[in-house]
Design goal:
NADP(+) binds at residues 9-14. The chain is of the alpha/beta class. It contains twelve helices and eight strands. The chain has helices spanning 13-24, 40-50, 58-64, 77-84, 103-110, 142-152, 166-174, 176-193, 198-219, 223-230, 237-246, 249-265; strands at residues 6-9, 33-36, 53-55, 67-70, 93-96, 115-120, 130-136, 156-160. Strand 1, helix 1 and strand 2 form a beta-alpha-beta unit. The structure holds 1,4-dihydronicotinamide adenine dinucleotide and (2S)-3,4-dihydro-2H-pyrrole-2-carboxylic acid.
Length: 267
């Protein structure tokens, strides 16, 4: 267990996913974690589930931190940074999780002497299966990056990427759980039409997505090869694949991700 103070400013969906992962993995003691939020309701919930420190004073959370996650919506970043910047410790690792906020923009507000990481997590962190792109600024040492990766591996895989790829990370992992949930919901709707109950349908659809994802990660085989292994000659699957291709599944996903990427760039 590390003797390190970790703070979160903004305690919504993403922060609580990360806090649960950190506490569950025993990375630090609950007393070493502090979350601040504008309203008390979310703080009461996280205190009840994780027993961490809470406050409505963002400056108190900033002053407490060796590692500080800025976990408010992007539109509140500037206001929150201006509020807390004088309370941040000189060697604090400051972690942005917002789309579109560049390292240059962040250091122009926080100070060019600050250690800053631009990251993009995703909500599967809630079940310890997140994916996170990480991009450190030039003030961060290799040890700092390893420390951050060690903390985040309690809820995510992590990969260091160049900043030019951070908007792509938003499209391919930050936002993509939403596309996958749509896909699962659509499969479940069809299964219900075929006679399954809702809960049965969600289990069959979700476990199939989970298993398929594991096959890609664990076999190292090309997704096309894995698809071909399912499609028996003159069988059922190739009929479904024919309809998905005809309805433009690939193109819809491609265009959706380009829209997501453009939005991230403009934020
Ligand atoms: N939800 C997601 O799937 C992902 C979100 N993100 C990023 O994470 C950040 C947070 O997103 P969510 O957790 O989804 O949002 P959220 O709305 O669930 O949480 C944000 C929290 O910040 C609080 N807040 C707002 N203004 C504040 C202030 N001035 N001081 C203190 N607290 C304040 C709100 O009360 C709320 O509890 C955003 O920048 C988002 O882009 C990144 C990756 C995935
Ligand atoms: O939709 C959003 O803007 C955030 C960033 C990535 C996922 N959710």
């Amino acid at each position: 267990m590390r003797d390190l103070h970790i703070s979160f400013i903004g305690c919504g969906n993403m922060a609580s996913a990360m806090i649960h992962g950190i506490i569950k993995a025993g990375k630090v003691a609950p007393d070493n974690v502090m979350a601040s939020n504008r309203s008390r309701e979310k703080l009461e919930a996280i205190h009840a589930s994780c027993d961490i420190r809470t406050t409505t004073d963002n400056c108190e959370a900033a002053a407490f931190a060796d590692v500080l996650f800025l976990s408010v919506k992007p539109q509140f970043y500037e206001q929150v940074i201006c509020e807390i910047k004088d309370d941040i410790r000189p060697e604090c690792l400051i972690v942005s999780i917002a789309p579109g906020k560049t390292l240059a923009w962040l250091s122009s507000l926080l100070g060019t002497d600050k250690k800053i990481l631009r990251t993009m997590p995703n909500t599967p962190a809630m079940v310890g299966e997140g994916m996170m792109g990480i991009c450190p600024n030039e003030r961060m040492t290799e040890d700092d990056v390893h420390l951050l990766q060690d903390i985040c591996k309690s809820f995510s895989r992590t990969q260091v990427v160049g900043e030019h790829l951070m908007d792509v990370v938003t499209a391919v992992s930050g936002s993509s759980p939403a596309y996958v949930f749509l896909f699962i919901e659509a499969m479940a709707d069809a299964a219900v039409a075929g006679g399954m109950t809702r809960s049965q349908a969600y289990e069959f659809a979700a476990q199939s997505v989970l298993g398929s994802a594991k096959m890609v990660l664990e076999t190292g085989k090309h997704p096309g090869e894995l698809k071909d292994m399912v499609c028996s000659p003159a069988g059922t699957t190739i009929e479904a694949v024919r309809v998905l291709e005809d309805k433009g599944l690939r193109s819809a996903v491609f265009e959706a991700m380009m829209a997501c990427l453009d939005k991230s760039k403009g934020m």
